[in-house]
Write a structure and sequence with these properties.
alpha/beta
Length: about 260
């Protein structure tokens, strides 16, 4: 399960005050791929100290600009370096780089798809408020996409180059990830395939920067406007909720003799 058939792939990790986990996250990413980009979004803790000596490409913001800006600047740099795709990971330790080869297997199995590492295993470990917020976001963003998506809030994703090129979307903060997902499906005709991963909320994770009420409200409002923009409001709802999301687990497929 390598990236050989996918061209040059980089890993992008946006980070804001991630001193507890960032070194472990980056080291695990480097064990999978040699090209790792970290965007430090104006951290005020020891995040930069934790990155010292690691063979990474570091992009720094003088002050916090938000996750959307970090992803946008990372995409711009990676596109400029000629990479064919990128895997994004959060810097707080919730994502495991060991899942990336499984994402590559899904990308090879489903060309012209965006791959999401969906936190659908051990969902009971998610805080109740976050689980409810994610469910609302999944319901709405799937409507915006016009297809069902298993985990619209996961930050661990495989983006082909043509999706990275959507960097000029005006959405900011956490809304950017919803915006690029909707645009990839609606404007590029991409599909979305989800690879099951564990929901990791137990352990020494810092408090999430995601604000369930405020950020879900912003995402919901953005999504409503996009549904109206694309038209076929009822048809989009039906197509996004009439069947289950596309989920592919290469481990299960291998055990079953293929999929």
């Amino acid at each position: 399960m390598s990236a050989e058939g996918l061209g040059r792939v980089a890993i992008l990790i946006p980070a804001y005050n991630e001193e507890r986990a960032i070194r472990r996250v980056v080291e695990s990413a480097l064990a999978v791929l040699p090209d790792v980009f970290v965007v430090d979004d104006g951290s005020t803790d020891a995040t930069l100290d934790q990155l010292a000596g690691l063979p990474i490409e570091l992009i720094r913001h003088a002050s916090a600009q938000g996750k959307g800006c970090s992803l946008r600047d990372g995409f711009r740099e990676i596109l400029g370096r000629g990479f064919d795709a990128v895997v994004t990971m959060d810097g707080d330790g919730q994502h495991d780089a060991a899942d990336i080869p499984r994402m590559f297997a899904a990308a090879e199995r489903y060309p012209d798809h965006l791959v999401i590492a969906a936190r659908i295993r051990a969902k009971e470990s998610q805080p109740a408020s976050r689980r409810r917020a994610n469910a609302v976001a999944d319901w709405g963003i799937s409507w915006g996409c016009g297809i069902p998506v298993a985990d619209t809030q996961s930050g661990q994703r495989y983006y082909p180059r043509e999706v990275m090129q959507l960097i000029d979307l005006s959405a900011r903060g956490f809304v950017f990830e919803a915006a690029i997902l909707i645009a990839a499906v609606r404007e590029l005709g991409m599909g979305v395939v989800s690879v099951p991963i564990d929901a990791r909320y137990k352990g020494e994770f810092r408090r999430s920067h995601f604000r369930p009420v405020l950020d879900v409200t912003r995402i919901t409002w953005y999504t409503i406007l996009r549904v109206i923009h694309y038209g076929s409001v009822v048809g989009s709802y039906r197509s996004s909720h009439s069947h289950a999301p596309l989920v592919y687990d290469p481990d299960v497929a291998a055990t079953a003799g293929g999929a």
